[in-house]
Design goal:
Blueprint lengths: L5 H11 L5 H52 L16 H8 L17 H4 L3 H4 L4 H4 L25 E4 L35 E5 L9 E2 L19 E6 L4 E5 L3 H4 L7 E2 L2 E2 L7 H6 L8
């Protein structure tokens, strides 16, 4: 039987005219490049959609921990929710976790937006609902890649709680108690309805400074802003446990340069957009 070596095959291919020419190779490379350019945006979108699904799962776990497990162990009371001025120090948290001191200012998730706190999971672990989730991963939106301000450290939390939910006594001065209802027990949710009151959401990295997110329907605009990590949308959970990804349209929310849009601590909603009216109507019941 006759055998062909590699040189024979090359000679045969060349003789039959079956080899690729330079132009043909360039055409193939160009087609591959075009296909890649078409597929990459679709892959990026699919990745963001997957992150959105994970975000909803994380919010679901946190909401279950806060509104079912914690309340069941605490006579129907929600976990306290503390503002920026109502926070323990790092030393106090470490002493508590080390078993050498009490936990001052207990709340659902303590911590401020600074290098010593938001870049460490110890504040999350000192939170009242952490024993029910037992992982710090669910506190950070998977699409949040922002860093702690003033550092190159990644954050550990992007979720914040509605300031009208579980509002700690020390934080009441930060919300309008004369015109808005404060929810501290499960039975309070009869006012407005648990399905119509948001509990947790991804907060914008420009406004997150604690776990206490203020969206006040009696104000003229945004005090804290929703995040827009998921294709101009964010994850939101409600007091009854259901979650959704909501797309924002107001340029005041989508604008990345928040410092230039604030006036007296309030960012005016853009005329013609109803984002603020929608989410503020789901924040609390107005009693006036």
């Amino acid at each position: 039987m006759q055998t062909l070596n590699l040189n024979d095959l090359r000679t045969s291919a060349k003789a039959d005219g079956k080899g690729f020419t330079l132009i043909e190779l360039l055409v193939v490379i160009a087609i591959i490049a075009i296909l890649a350019a078409l597929l990459l945006p679709a892959l990026a979108t699919a990745k963001l959609q997957a992150q959105g699904s994970q975000c909803l799962s994380d919010l679901k776990q946190l909401s279950l921990a806060a509104m079912s497990l914690y309340t069941a162990d605490n006579k129907g009371y929600m976990p306290p929710n503390g503002s920026d001025s109502y926070q323990p120090t790092l030393d106090q948290v470490l002493a508590f976790l080390g078993g050498t001191g009490p936990m001052p200012d207990p709340q659902w998730c303590p911590g401020r937006e600074d290098e010593s706190q938001m870049s460490s999971n110890v504040f999350i672990m000192a939170g009242l609902i952490y024993p029910y989730v037992k992982t710090d991963k669910v506190y950070l939106c998977p699409a949040d890649r922002t860093l702690v301000p003033g550092s190159r450290l990644p954050k550990t939390r992007s979720m914040s709680m509605n300031s009208f939910m579980g509002t700690a006594a020390q934080s009441l001065g930060n919300v309008n108690t004369s015109e808005c209802h404060i929810y501290t027990k499960e039975t309070d949710l009869n006012i407005g309805g648990a399905a119509n009151l948001w509990l947790l959401m991804d907060e914008n990295p420009f406004s997150i400074n604690d776990g206490f997110m203020i969206i006040d329907p009696t104000k003229d605009g945004w005090i804290d802003w929703p995040a827009t990590y998921h294709l101009k949308a964010n994850g939101i959970s409600f007091a009854d446990g259901h979650c959704l990804i909501h797309k924002w349209r107001d340029p005041a929310v989508l604008n990345d340069d928040k410092e230039t849009t604030s006036s007296g601590g309030v960012t005016q909603p853009t005329p013609g957009y109803t984002d603020f009216q929608w989410i503020s109507s789901l924040s609390t019941a107005v009693t006036r």
